[in-house]
Every structure is written in structure tokens, then in C-alpha cells.
Amino acid sequence: MLEEAPGLLVARWRRETSRLELRAGLVACERLASADPTMLLADLDQADVDALAGRFAAEPALRTGLAIYDLGRLEKIGAPRSSVFVYFEWFLRDAYGVKLLTSAAFTQGLIARGVISLGFG
User: Fold this and answer.
1) How far apart are CA 44 and CA 46, in angstroms?
2) Partner residues linked to 16 by β-bridges
3) Which end of the chain has fewer CB within 10 Å, C or N?
4) What is the CA radius of gyration of the chain?
5) Rounded Cα distance, 36 and 54, in Å
6) Coil/strand/helix, residue 99
7) Within its chain, how far is the Cα of 34 from the centroid?
């Protein structure tokens, strides 16, 4: 652990640093995208999911630097590479028996832009 404050944890695994932050809202959250992967834990409604999924799918720097996790919906938006995030998801699975899924709107946005393919056809 490199830094700890109410609502914030900066952790390091080997040479990889990641930020985890609790957020009441997501105003200007794109400013947090950086070379160090950042996870925001926030409550999202469907309008938030639709708007954020489109922005994240369209902007590579945003989707690789920032992830938004909604533990109530068990969904995530974003695709940064972070061992800390993987271990967090394993913890949720082992401790609570839940699995976070990538938001369907985010996945559809990536498919529509040709970023990923599901390999059917």
C-alpha cells in the first residue's frame, strides 16, 4: 500500500501501481485516467451506463486508464490492465460468490467500433 485515505487506496503489486477510489458521483471522472490504472467504485443508473459506455468505447486512453465498477449492478466499464483489479475481482468471487461482468453497453460499443470481435462469422 502506497497511500491510504478515506475513499482512496493506492496499491502496488511488483512494479505496477493502481488507484482505487470510492466516488459519490462521476463528474469529470475522465481526468483520473492516467498511466496508473484507476478504479472508481460508484453507483450507476442506466443513463450513466449508456453515456459512459459510449465514451469509454470511443476513447482508447479513457478505457485503458480508468475502470468504473458498480458493485450494486455487478458491472464494470473500462479495460485497464491491472493485477490489483484482478485480485479485487477474485476477492469478490471468493468472499461473496459474485462475479463482475463487463457492461453489455460497453461491450456493444467496442464491437460496433471494431475494437473487439466475438468471433461469430
Assistant:
1) 7
2) 13
3) C
4) 14
5) 22
6) coil
7) 13
Q: Which three cell numbers stand for residue 82?
A: 491491472
Q: What cell was used for 26?
A: 462521476
List the grid coordinates of 21. Answer: 477510489
CA angle 94-74-39, nearest 5°? 85
Distance separating alpha carbons of residues 73 and 29, to the nearest angstrom = 19
User: Domain ranges in the chain?
Assistant: 3-112
pTM for this one? 0.87
Reduced to 3 states, what is the DSSP secondary structure of residue 103? coil
Q: What is the pLDDT of residues 34-53, one digit of tens each?
A: 788 999 999 998 988 999 99
3-state secondary structure of 71: coil
- Residues contacting residue 38 through CB under 8 Å, at least 6 positions apart: 18, 19, 20, 21, 32, 65, 66, 67, 80
pLDDT at 119: 78
